[in-house]
Amino acid sequence: MSDVRNPSPSGAAPVAAPPYDALLLLSFGGPEAPEDVVPFLENVTRGRGIPRERLKEVGRHYFMFGGVSPINEQNRELLAALRKDFAEHGLDLPVYWGNRNWAPYLVDTLREIAADGHRRVAVLATSAYAGYSGCRQYRENLADALATLAEEGLPALRVDKLRHFYNHPGFVEPMIDATVAALEELPAGVRDGARLAFTTHSIPETMAESSGDPQDPARGRPGGAYVAQHLDVARLIAAAVAERTGVADRGCELVFQSRSGAPHIPWLEPDICDHLEAQHADGAPAVVMVPIGFVSDHMEVKYDLDTEAVAKAAELGLPVARAATVGTDPRFTAAVRELVLERAAAERGEAATRCAIGGLGPSHDVCAVACCPNPRAPRPAAAER
Ligand SMILES: CC1=C(CCC(=O)O)c2cc3nc(cc4[nH]c(cc5[nH]c(cc1n2)c(C)c5CCC(=O)O)c(CCC(=O)O)c4C)C(CCC(=O)O)=C3C
Ligand SMILES: [Fe+2]
Question: Using CA of residue 133, residue 128, residue 85, residue 140, what is the dihedral sign?
Fold first, then answer.
C-alpha cells in the first residue's frame, strides 16, 4: 500500500485541484417528513416494476421512523466533514451536494454550481461498487440534469465521476475497526466463535452479471464485478480481523438484504435473515453483520439490519452485533480528498498514485459505454468514453 496522504504544510496558502473547480457529493436522497414518503418512493420506483405490496412494505419502514430517513442528515454530516478535511489540508475546492430522489435535487445543485461560476466538476457518488444502481444510474441522472441545464441556456458543465472506492484503504480500514468493535459488543462467551456475515444490497442476478467493465477481469467472474468487488473487501476485512482477534475461522460469507422487484425475477441470495437461520442451525454461537455495501447507517441499515435481522436473531436466540459503516471517519474523508487529487493529476496528464488494496487493483477512472448496462433500455449517461 502506498501512502499518498500529503497534507500541505500548515500555514501554506490553500491550493486548488485544477482542472476541477468543485466537488459534487451525489447521493440517493430520502424522505424527511411523513408527507415526503410516498412522493419519494414514486421518484425511486418510477418505471421499475416494483410490486405494490413491496412499496407499501417499504413505506411502512419509513413511517416506523417518523417518515424520516437518516440518509440526508448523514450526507449533511459528510459534506461538513469533507469541507473541514479540505480546509485542514489546504485544498481549496468548494463541495456541493445533490440527490437522485429527493431534495436537494441534483439538477438544482448543478444550476447552483453553474451560477457560482464553476465549470469542471469532480463527482463522488455515495456508492462504493460497480453496478447499474451505484454507477451508471448516477451517470444517467447527471446526463439528464445536464440536458436540463442546456435547455435552460445555462453554461455547460463537465462532470467526471471519481472511481469506485470500495478497495481504498480509507474505506476498508474503518470497517475493520468497526468489525472488531462489534465483536467486542458480544458477550465474552460467544465472541471467539462469532461468524462474520458481510452484507450488501441484493440486486437482480442479471444486473450483477453485467456489472463492471467487460474488459475488467473482475467482471468475468461469477456474479460480475459487483460480487467480485464485495468478496475482495470481505476477504480483506476477514483477514485483518483474524489477525487482530487471533481467531482465524470466522467464515467470510457475502449475504444480501433489501431485495425488491417481482418475486419471479432472481435476485442475489442468500438473504441475511435466511443466513442467520442457517448459521443458527449450523451451531454458530453468534454473528456479526458487517454492512460493507453501504457508506452510512441509512434506512437499509436501520430497518433491514437493525430492526428486521435483529428481530430474526432474537427469535432464534442468536446473539448478533452490527458493525458501523464508515460515515464521516477521517480516513474516509482523507480518501475522498486523495481520490480528487489523484484524478485531478491524471486529468492534467501527470503521474498519480492510485491507492488500492486487495486483489483487484484500482478501478478505471472513466467508465466504458458497455460498463454496468441499464437493465431496461440504453439511455444517455455522462462521464463515459
Ligand atoms: C445496489 C443498491 C444500493 C447500494 C449502493 C448505493 O448506496 O447506491 C442501494 C442503496 C439504497 N437504496 C435505497 C432505497 C431504495 N432502493 C430501492 C430499490 C432498489 N435499490 C436497488 C439497488 C441499490 N440500492 C435496486 C436494484 C432497486 C430496485 C429498483 C431499481 O431498479 O431501482 C427502493 C424502492 C423500494 C424497494 O423495493 O426497496 C428504495 C426506497 C437507499 C435510501 C435509504 C434511505 O432512505 O435511507 C439507498 C442508499
Ligand atoms: Fe436501493
Answer: negative
Task: Tell me what pLDDT residue 7 has.
Answer: 47
What's the CATH code of the domain at 271? 3.40.50.1400
Query: Lowest-confidence range among 16-25, 53-62, 271-280?
Result: 53-62
Locate the DSSP E strands across the chain: 22-27, 95-99, 120-125, 158-161, 195-201, 253-257, 287-290, 320-322
**Backbone phi and psi for residue 331, each to the nearest 5 degrees, phi listed first:** -70, -30
Given the CA of residue 54, which atom of ligand 1 is nearest to it? 37
Radius of gyration, alpha carbons of the chain: 21
Q: pTM of the entire structure? A: 0.95
Distance CA 105, CA 26 (A): 9
Place of cell 465483536: 183
3-state secondary structure 286-331: CEEEECCCCCCCCHHHHHHHHHHHHHHHHHHCCCEEECCCCCCCHH
Tell me how far CA of residue 228 lies from CA of 113, 211, 291, 317, in angstroms. Answer: 36, 10, 16, 32
Residues 47, 124 within the same domain: yes
Share of the chain above pLDDT 90, in %: 88
| pLDDT (0 to 100) of residue 217 | 80
pLDDT in tens, 142-164: 999 999 999 999 999 999 999 99
**Can you give the length of the chain in residues?**
385
Same domain, 55 and 160: yes
Domain count, the chain: 2
Query: Could you tell me the three cell numbers for 373?
Result: 448496462
Q: Which residues line ligand 1 (CB under 6 A)?
A: 28, 30, 41, 44-45, 48, 50, 54, 58, 69-71, 126-127, 131, 133-134, 201, 203, 258, 260-261, 293-294, 298-300
Residues 55 and 196 in one domain: no
Q: Tell me, yes or no, whether 137 and 103 share the same domain.
A: yes
CB-count burial class (<10 Å; 0-12, 13-18, 19+) for 243: exposed
Q: How remote is the CA of residue 328 from the centroid of ligand 1, in Å?
A: 21
Residue 88: inside a domain, yes or no? Answer: yes
Residues 289 and 342 in one domain: no
Q: Is residue 222 part of a domain?
A: yes
Q: What is the ipTM of this complex?
A: 0.95
